[in-house]
Design a protein that fits this description.
The chain folds into two domains: 162 residues, Rossmann fold (3-Layer(aba) Sandwich), CATH 3.40.50; 154 residues, Glycogen Phosphorylase B (Rossmann fold, 3-Layer(aba) Sandwich). The protein contains 16 helices and 13 strands. Helix 9 crosses helix 14. The protein starts with a strand and ends with a helix.
């Protein structure tokens, strides 16, 4: 019987990458999950009972609060896992997990969310994270070491699967490797088709500056239409300062309230650029269209005039024009929902299993 191991960067927060790990655990429930750090309180219930094996980093002081400060230790931790005896390695990697040492003769299929952003797009990354001058001065020598490590360890997986065309192009450019494209899973079952009866447009996002929620605020100030913003983050104070009376900030809310807001919204506003972006497909699962900036993953998931509207410039006027255009379209909620269902968890798991089986047979 084939022995399988799952490897993930870290399990101390919940996001799209961790949803992928949930799928891997459902596909191979008896496989241990190797990860540098794990916080069971931050995990979904589906992973709390899994066989999770952490690295020595779990014993470092204050890692829950300062896990980013331990940047130099992750390569050592991920390479410290002894995976001898496993026939199949499945990794979920935004940075580290792809470097897990693949035993001789084993198959290693890596689902790559992206090569390290802070290594390959350093200036943009530090600008969006708001690092101070001392950090900016100290990081470049480490970044150069990590870049060389990233290229070297990109050869560990025998097969690479990526989540979007943007990442596929990045993997080819940075690592010189071909990859297979498979969009990540969307929990469409959490959402039901709505009617937009709330009539407000909606933003659901972490309120970070690079998400460009400021465009939505400025556009809806111009339009004088209601906009609800769900989420919190470092940009909230500045966004609230510029917001007019038609804009409401709801902060963080639970999943049930997010689903209800999706059902009731007129359309989801997605003004930033993401490698993929699951939120637009969650809105589509609710039968609601998406108004998105024409870049990154939105170009793969938003079908202009069918499941949403794309705008070409990150300018308030361009977004406002897209909102007016969307209001002129008679949207078919059933068509929009079917589009989202093509990205469902079940479809992802069936396609990923097929990819792995083909890799093993080769």
């Amino acid at each position: 019987m084939m022995r399988v191991a799952i490897v993930h960067d870290y399990l101390n927060q919940m996001g799209g990458a961790e949803r992928v790990v949930e799928s891997f655990h459902r596909l191979w429930p008896s496989a241990p999950i190797f990860t540098t750090l794990a916080d069971r309180d931050a995990m979904p219930a589906s992973l709390r009972g899994a066989d999770i094996r952490v690295s020595w980093m779990q014993h470092l002081p204050g890692w829950r609060r300062h896990f980013r400060a331990y940047l130099p230790f992750y390569p050592l931790a991920i390479e410290s896992f002894d995976l001898r005896g496993y026939d199949l390695i499945i990794s979920s990697s935004s940075a580290w997990a792809k470097a897990a040492r693949t035993p001789a003769g084993a198959v290693h299929v890596c689902y790559c969310h992206t090569p390290m952003r802070w290594v390959w797009d350093y200036d943009h990354y530090v600008a969006r994270e708001g690092f101070g001058p001392l950090t900016r001065l100290a990081l470049p020598p480490l970044i150069e070491v990590l870049r060389r490590w990233d290229v070297r360890t990109s050869q560990q997986p025998t097969h690479l699967v990526v989540n979007s065309r943007v990442v596929q192009e990045r993997v080819q450019r940075c690592w010189g490797r071909a990859s297979e494209l498979l969009h990540p899973p969307v929990e469409t079952g959490r959402f039901a088709v709505g009617t937009g009866e709330g009539r407000a447009h909606l933003v659901v996002a972490r309120l970070a500056h690079y998400k460009r929620i400021d465009l939505a605020v400025a556009a809806f100030n111009q339009l004088g239409r209601p906009l609800e913003i769900i989420g919190d983050g470092p940009a909230r104070r500045s966004l609230e300062a510029m917001a007019g009376p038609t804009i409401t900030f709801r902060g963080r809310v639970d999943d049930a309230l997010v689903a209800r807001a999706m059902q009731e919204c007129r359309a989801l506003i997605f003004p930033g650029e993401e490698d993929f972006g699951i939120t637009p497909l969650e809105a589509n699962a609710s039968g609601r269209p998406v108004i998105a900036y024409r870049a990154g993953g939105a170009t793969e998931t938003v079908h202009d005039g069918v499941t949403g509207v794309l705008f070409a410039e990150q300018m308030p006027a361009a977004l406002a024009d897209a909102v007016r255009r969307a209001e002129s379209i008679a949207w078919d909620a059933a068509t929009i929902r079917r589009h989202a269902e093509s990205h469902s968890v079940a479809n992802f798991e069936a396609q990923f299993r097929d990819i792995v089986e083909r890799a093993v047979h080769r």
